[in-house]
What we know:
Number of domains: 1
Helix content: 25-40%
CATH superfamily: Response regulator
Amino acid sequence: MNILVVCKGNQARSPLVEALLVRSLGAESVRSRGWSQEAGRGAEVLSKIREYARAAQLSLGNHVSRRLSKEDIEWADLVVYMDRADKRALRQMKCKKKMVCLAKYVDKEEIPDPVNIPRGFELGAVCKLIKKAAIGLILSFTPKEERNGSTPTD
């Protein structure tokens, strides 16, 4: 299954989710992209996200932001998005693939953007929310009888 992870800028949330999924599912089946103009400028992952990933022993490799294309959508079997704006952007691109909001796996409506963290959130909490939601997504691919009690991103 090919999984496409989408957020606005492809500099924080989607690269972090991509790294978590790659650890469990393999690099060839996961990619991340951003839908905004800024995403196409090849910017690096935000330093605060890179620091979190390093502390969590996640590899972001040499990730640079990439803009979402119709080819990316065609490649995907599942498109994972973070918030309402992402869903709107995907619909504007006529995405007909199965789409799911990552926040569903933590009983939230949206995953906050660490670039513009809403009041009441802190970066560490947002990153932990992203990790918990990614684990929920990974577990959704594994039948209950095959789960051995370990966490998929350990």
